[in-house]
Amino acid sequence: MSTQPCGPGQRRAEPADARFVLGLDVGSTVIRCHVYDRTARVRGSSAGKVETLYPKPGWVEINPEVLWAQFVAVIKDAVKAAGAQMSDIAGLGISTQRATFITWNKKTGVPFHNFISWQDTRASESVKSLNNSLLMKLLQNSCRLLHLVSRSQRMLTMSRFVFTTQQACPRLMWVLQNVPEVQKAVEEDNCCFGTIDTWLLHKLTKGSVYATDVSNASTTGCFDPFKMCWSGLITFMTSIPLSVLPPVKDTSYQFGSVDEEIFGVPIPITALVGDQQAAMFGECCFHRGDVKLTMGTGTFLDINTGNRPQHTLGDLFTDAAETEKMAKSLEDSEGVYFVPSFSGLQAPLNDPCACAAFMGLKPSTSKYHLVRAILESIAYRNKQLYELMQKEIDIPVTTIRADGGVCKNGFVMQMTSDLINENIDRPTDFDMSCLGAASLAGLAVGFWNDKEELQKLRKSEMVFRPQKKCQEYALHMENWVKAVKRSMNWYTNM
Predict the structure, then answer these.
(1) Do 20-281 and 286-430+460-493 fold alike per CATH?
(2) Which residues, at least 6 apart from 305, have a Cβ–Cβ distance to it below 8 Å?
(3) So where are the chain's domains?
(4) CATH superfamily name and code, 286-430+460-493
(5) Residue 171, Cα to own-chain centre: how many angstroms?
(6) Can you give the pLDDT at residue 153?
(7) Residues of the chain with confidence (pLDDT) below 70
């Protein structure tokens, strides 16, 4: 993720009367807008539920026009809640769920289909076919040999590259093969592809700007992070024409201004960023070895690798506070284990056909045991990801900072701290994707001077420190891993 303000030498001065910046986060379940002042304090907020559609088993979609209407509404409501005017806004930063995409008619701007979510698994067979293809084997083996000769990190990365259903490109390949309108538009050079950030930028500027940023491009599966451009090799393998892909800009950049008809004034759009990168920036993980742990709709562990890209392989309750009490009321889950694979399993197992499951149920099992098993599964998953990161990224961990709705749950936080044997810093503000987007936007217009100023504004609410040895969890985690393995390849047998 690049954080150069507005591109080389293009920092834009904020309007003289600007008092706030807006941070938007379009998540998998909620869309939020926060209005921040110069102390990074939230002065007004608004939120709405993202309406997800499930037209077929394994298909996960979002209606683009409904999302657009919600996006505009939360901005207006948040600014109103802050007691501000649109003319008070110095800049707008947009954080989005990554790898959720859409295609649309270049001339009319009309979508060819709904957004296809990152959780969607319709391309699972295509992923298997691509990964088992002769071309993939040739690519991996050739790059492995080239790495032995050159010791190039890029060649090592390519030798381990595999496709997953979470990447946008296999799902885009599915669209190109199965939606006739898209096929025709591509032939006529009249098709645009975009992740949510690109679509919103297109809508906000009434079609005058077409672009994405590095952090969103990197989740498509066809972006080369070493050369910082679209990969001709991957697009060739997936038959995706480069002509449908948007230009890639810096994350903190002068993308353009909101069309005046939408909010009454031309608000500068100065940051587009993927939600996990936004959260990492919001947590002020600016130094090599800083780790950010997000626990929300999914579990994500990110580490600042410095300037060099690195490769890795690989409703029972009403709120988080209630689940914490339920879990702490028991000594253990009484042999009940939960596998959290609602959209397949990601690294290190990478199985899109795994199912979510409870295992070890008994006549004595209560909803308390089920809740505790769910919370334990999050901590076990955090441990699994942390071990993978330590194994494959040779960078000493300096700090670990958590965010996301689940980090409000002290049980999960403490168990994770015990399992990884590290301190975990929980901030006062959990909506780090919004804050990160706002921070990047604010830097681009000079609302804040530099990252050091942002670092001073960050506030810690609590630090969780290891209280039990991870060995005490060894048997339970071993059984959880066994349960995870039994959930694999479930849907191939249906």
Answers:
(1) yes
(2) 288, 393, 395
(3) 20-281, 286-430+460-493
(4) ATPase, nucleotide binding domain (3.30.420.40)
(5) 17
(6) 84
(7) 1-17, 297, 310-314, 316-321, 342-345, 347, 349, 492-494
pLDDT digits (tens, 9 = 90+) for 160-193: 899 999 999 999 999 999 999 999 999 999 999 9
How far from the centroid of its chain's Cα atoms is residue 44's Cα? 24
- CB neighbours (10 Å) of residue 355? 17
User: Residues with Cβ < 8 Å from 164, sequence gap 6 or more?
Assistant: 127, 170, 221, 346, 350, 352
| Predicted pLDDT at 7 | 40
**CATH class of the domain at 20-281:** alpha beta
Tell me the per-residue pLDDT of 49-104, one tens digit each, with 9 for 90 and over.
999 999 999 999 999 999 999 999 999 999 999 999 999 999 999 999 999 999 99
